[in-house]
What we know:
Blueprint: H1 15-26, H2 29-41, H3 45-73, H4 77-87, H5 95-127, H6 136-147, H7 150-169, H8 173-201, H9 204-212, H10 221-234, H11 241-246, H12 255-283, H13 294-305, H14 309-342, H15 347-367, H16 382-409, H17 412-419, H18 425-449
Helix pairs in contact: 1-8, 1-12, 1-14, 2-10, 2-12, 3-4, 3-9, 3-10, 3-12, 3-16, 3-18, 4-5, 5-7, 5-13, 5-14, 5-15, 5-16, 6-13, 7-14, 7-15, 8-12, 8-14, 9-12, 10-16, 10-18, 12-13, 13-14, 14-15, 16-18
GO cellular component, one term: membrane
Membrane topology: Multi-pass membrane protein
Subcellular location: Membrane
Amino acid sequence: MTSNHKHTHAQWGSRLGFILAAVGSAVGLGNIWKFPYMLGKSGGSAFMFTYLACIVLIGLPILSAEWLIGRRGQRNPIDAMKTVAQQEGRSKAWAIIGASGTLGGYLILSFYSVIGGWSMNYIVKAGSGLFSGMTGEQTGAVFTSMLANPTGLLIWHTIFMAVTIFIVAAGVTGGLERGSKIMMPLLAAFLGVLVIYGANTGHFGEALSFLFKPDWGAINADVLLSALGHAFFTLSLGMGIMLAYGSYLGKEVNLLRSAAIVVILDTAIAVLAGLAIFPIVFANGLDTEAGPGLVFVTLPIAFGNMSGGTVLGLIFFLLLSFAALTSSISLLESSVEFLEERTRMNRVGSTLVAGIVVWLLGVASALSFNVWSDVKIMDLNIFDLLDVFTSKFTLPLSGFAIVVFMGWFMKQDSIRDELRLGGAFKIWQFIYRVIAPVGVIIVFVQQLIG
Ligand code: PHE
């Protein structure tokens, strides 16, 4: 992103710059770390299919709604919501959506940074040849001992957060986003290599049927809510980020087409990650329900046992850390933008304040893997609590409010012009007026009564 937000609210230099930033925010640990372990926990194909449905029927409409509102609001998320609500003759209270999004952003970044730290730590571990010849049991032990060491976790969390703060404070996020042009395709290529490795040496057939053989009976309320929450998480929705990106968007950009590009790329990377990981899981008799450690236990087995694996592993975790950084800067930036436009603090000051608050919260997450593992609220440790509260609660609720606002509280004529759909507008309108909001409600109610 370019220019000084305080005076003139700039626009993207090019459509490509905008897509790169949006993809950079969307593609990250959510695709490669979180998606596979959620697949594993929620019965594979049951999760896969509900997730795909959520992405298309709920994620895509909400992504375009956020851009549309942001483009009209031309400000940080909170003020954008307020401006657009006023333009439409509605209450300023709609700004609460922007505020809950910004809060969600702080909470997510705090634990995201801890996992980003794991990824950076694994650059060193993989590059040192540590994984050479290792079995699943051994890579599992490496992971467990990393978690057991609070100092190590805190150091890596601090490094990850420091790099994020530095990039945002220096205002060079655009440079990093442009780097995605090379890094994202490379990451996809690496995942492709891992899929081929899995197809040759792992239990590929078993993985395929785990991921794609329909098992409708396994879809329950919890799977639904997890899939819905993940659709929001992976597309960076419900947090004001996409609203903020929309505010830099020129009128000529086709919102739906751009949203489809982001959704397809994001989903493709996630599915590739699943295809890379599960053949290894089954070949090594690992537990599909291993949870957050799944990627960090499985992929090192592959790198430890393929030729050139030390270098490939090093590059892979570099790429993963890069993808995590392009997401974390988007998370931090949306909170910074608000502080910068609303307070006397400049960019560096705003970034430091927001960054330090997030870092402190992250310390609690890091410690919840070891010294504070017994600190539980509603049976969840701090890390799980933050994850569950944001993915299953704040994100879906803010997303819900955004589509309801667009569907029922904005003048539909101007939306029709902006979406440029011609005759297909009616179908699309039905999706964002009825399907997306009702989908979110059903999932919530199911969860309450289930
Ligand atoms: N979408 C990012 C990912 O999948 C995570 C993220 C969530 C980024 C929320 C920004 C906002 O890794």
